[in-house]
Design a protein that fits this description.
- The chain is built from 1 helix and 9 strands.
- The protein has 127 residues and is mainly beta.
- A hairpin with a 4-residue loop joins strand 7 and strand 8.
């Protein structure tokens, strides 16, 4: 008889736990990317050589918020990301006294992420 009482006690406890009126969240699969989509920026000299250590700055033309990155040993940075979207962004690079022309990047957004257009940008430093 002790076994039966233990079973009823367990059943009663489980029913009570289901009646706590706490909100329930159904977690479906999330198709959105957890990481921010980045713009790949390559900085080169007038001769086409990749520039290591160049500073690349992207500025949102509406909010004036900026992100700055530094190019790696391949002359590339992916520091500029969709956190600046959805407004157009102005991107410029500099290394020492050399500066690139400014380029404009547009972001196309859906419900999950924003994608840069163009997806890759090459900035040439002026001599």
């Amino acid at each position: 008889m002790v076994r039966v009482r233990g079973w009823w006690w367990l059943l009663g406890l489980s029913l009570l736990a289901g009646c706590d009126e706490a909100p329930r969240v159904e977690r479906g699969e999330d198709d959105c990317q957890a990481e921010l989509v980045a713009l790949r920026v390559e900085v080169v000299t007038a001769e086409g050589a990749r520039v290591r250590g160049a500073t690349v700055t992207a500025t949102n033309l509406t909010s004036n918020v900026s992100i700055t990155g530094v190019t790696d040993e391949f002359g590339v940075t992916t520091a500029i990301n969709e956190s600046l979207a959805p407004s157009p962004v102005r991107v410029v690079a500099n290394a020492g006294s050399k500066v690139s022309s400014a380029q404009r990047v547009e972001w196309t957004c859906d419900t999950c992420n924003c994608v840069p257009e163009p997806g890759t940008l090459q900035l040439e430093l002026n001599p």
